[in-house]
Every structure is written in structure tokens, then in C-alpha cells.
Amino acid sequence: MKARPTLAAAAAVACLLVGGACGDDDDDSSSSGSGSDGGVCDTLEGFDSTVDEITGTGGDSDADTTVADVESAIDQFQSDLEDVQDENDDLPSGVASALDSAASALANAVDDLPSDETLAEAGDAVASAQTSLATAWTNLLDAMNCSS
Questions:
Q1: CA angle 54-64-19, nearest 5°?
Q2: Which of 33, 52, 98, 110 could be bridged to 146 by S-S, CB 3.0 to 4.6 A?
Q3: Domain locations along the chain
Q4: How many CA atoms lie less than 13 Å away from 143 in the CB half-sphere?
Q5: Which residues of 104-137 are buried (b: 16+ CB within 10 A; e: fewer)?
Q6: How far is CA 61 from CA 3, 6, 28, 43, 46, in A?
Q7: Element containing residue 84 per DSSP (H, E)
């Protein structure tokens, strides 16, 4: 059973971005991605837990994740994605823009919901936006030839 709060996942993503996008220039071949820049793949894959939480693809995450968690995670996610885009010219802008748009659509879907409502309680009100974000995320990883 997955019980990690989304805020903790977002904080972990921020830490990964600082280390993954700005640091380690070692070529130790430990990249899990096979894209042109393994560091970008590693950094993007650092988003996985956050994406799983807010899209409901991470097990029981819909039952544990509140609207407030989603709003906070999306803000951090979009900011971190923008940082990754700024630092990596090979990130396909159209695919990354689609991901950002999907995240904005999910933020809009939860905007008028009570902040303590869970994604499970929100149900159909957010399901389509969650699916769109999950698809856009997969498309970005595929475009970068990163494994997930």
C-alpha cells in the first residue's frame, strides 16, 4: 500500500532536479534512460512518484491524495518542469508544452473542489484530466527515449 504524501514526493522531485539537472557531470553510465542525455532521463524519471500520485496511477494514491496536495504538487511540478526545459535544449518543446497544459487542466479541474477532498472522492470530476496528464507524461518520456 502506497502512503507517501504528494508533498513529500514533490520535495523529493525538487531535490532530484537540483542534483540531476544542475550537477553530476560524471559519465558513470548509471542512467536508467537510453535517451541522448541520460541525466535528463534521470531527472525526468524523478518526477515519476509525483506524476503517479496526482494521476492516480500509483496504487492507492487517489484515496490518500487531497486536492490541496494536488494543487501544491502541480505548482511545484510545473516550476520544476520549466527549470528542466530551460536547462535542456533537447527536451521537445511541443511535448513538454502538452505536459504543462495537461497539468494546468488538472489544476483547473480541482480548483473549485474543497481542499480536503481526496482524488477518490472527486472521482469523475478529475478522472479525465488525470488520464490526460498521465498520457502527456508518457509521451514526454517516450519522446526523450527514457524508460520509466
A1: 50
A2: 33
A3: 6-20+32-143
A4: 17
A5: ebbbebbeebeeebbbeebeeebeebbebbbebb
A6: 7, 9, 34, 22, 17
A7: helix 67-87
Question: In whole angstroms, what is the distance from residue 57 CA to residue 130 CA?
Answer: 9
pTM here? 0.70
Q: Which residues of 73-98 are buried (b: 16+ CB within 10 A; e: fewer)?
A: bbebbeebbebbbeebeebeeebbeb
Stated as kind and residue range, the H or E segment containing 21 is helix 6-22
Task: Report d(CA 130, CA 145) in Å as an integer.
Answer: 23
What's the distance, Cα to Cα, between the start and end of the chain in Å?
20
Half-sphere exposure of 145 (CA within 13 A, CB side): 7
User: Which amino acid is present at 123?
Assistant: G
Which of 14, 118, 115, 113 is closest to 61 using CA atoms? 118
Burial 21-49 (b: 16+ CB within 10 A, else e): beeeeeeeeebebebebbbbbbbbbbbbb
